[in-house]
Amino acid sequence: MLPNTFASKFLITLFAMIVVSTSRVTMATETETQQEDTAAIPQFTSEIARIDGLANGYGGGNSWLAAAEGHREQIEDRLKTEPETAQDDDFVVFSNGYLYGKAWLLDYLPPEFFEKTPHGEAALNSIKTTKKWLDSLGVHLLVVPVPPRMEVTPTSVFKEHVDLPHRIHFIRTLLEHGVHTLDVLPMFTEEQSRTGLSLSLKTDSHYSNAGVRILALEIANSIAPYTPPPGDDIALEYSTRGIQTDIKSAFTKHIQDGSPVKFPPYETAEAYSVSDANGLPFKPAKSSSILVAGDSYTYIFQNVSGHLPAHLALEMKQPISHVAMGGGGATVPNRLARMGKEEVAKFDVVVWVFTARYLTRPGWDKNPLTD
Fold it and tell me: How close are the terminal C-alpha atoms of the chain, in Å?
């Protein structure tokens, strides 16, 4: 029989070990829970550091908000100083020829950070829910909150380059939560500086076809590690040809319906039409390893087979599937739910594309996806 003093020490030590062990299990469980969202952080460290560098350029902290307020003041001042003949109640054509909806201009710069608005929180939760659902199916998600014209072609509104706080902060937050997110603005800025090409349309809110092609290239580079190369039985050779097409925007249609101000009814834009090896125009595939889902940024130039899925097929050398609706970036989870788990699980990658302007708008709280 053990001496009482030794037995007491042994029991105390044993009890302490049990407590420590239990504590470690609890801590480990809490840590694992905390890391569920941030498991992929190391993969995105350099991108987070780049965004932090942008914040530091503004002085860090609340200076992002100050910068946003400064941008908003520039827009409001410009709206006041442009000639009255160049605007009506809803739209304005600036002296450089760029047409904007006034409310849309200010939508890009909400008075507060998106984190402080319910819509931004809903967008974050919806994307996290969608990623978790796709992860359970073994499907990789790439999120692309595309920058608006005022970022891509800042001289259409501002005097200098801008990084809109709600978009860039949203990208950083998604990266922190382990969501693969692509910021295409650096490549757009570099390409415009190098070539002098305009990557934005003047009378429409979308990109030029050159902008669409760069967007496709950036997406292709981002998803390549998650997409097996096509087998010889489905590998496709695509070709392009330059054409001219008329862009009739929602802006100009609305203006013609009732505005006394005469705006150009459309602009003529150069586009590259994508065809397969047989010379047939690109058409989205019913079955493929890549699904492009989103809003109108995915189908501008669709009328000439020069839209995003077509140019992504050109870059990836394989079929691309496509679902979209105008203004429907937030509704992608609904489209996936309607397709069903069995169909969605056939994809290797889902590319979710939407204009960053909708981060500040409602519609994100209706996500039907569950485990």
Answer: 56
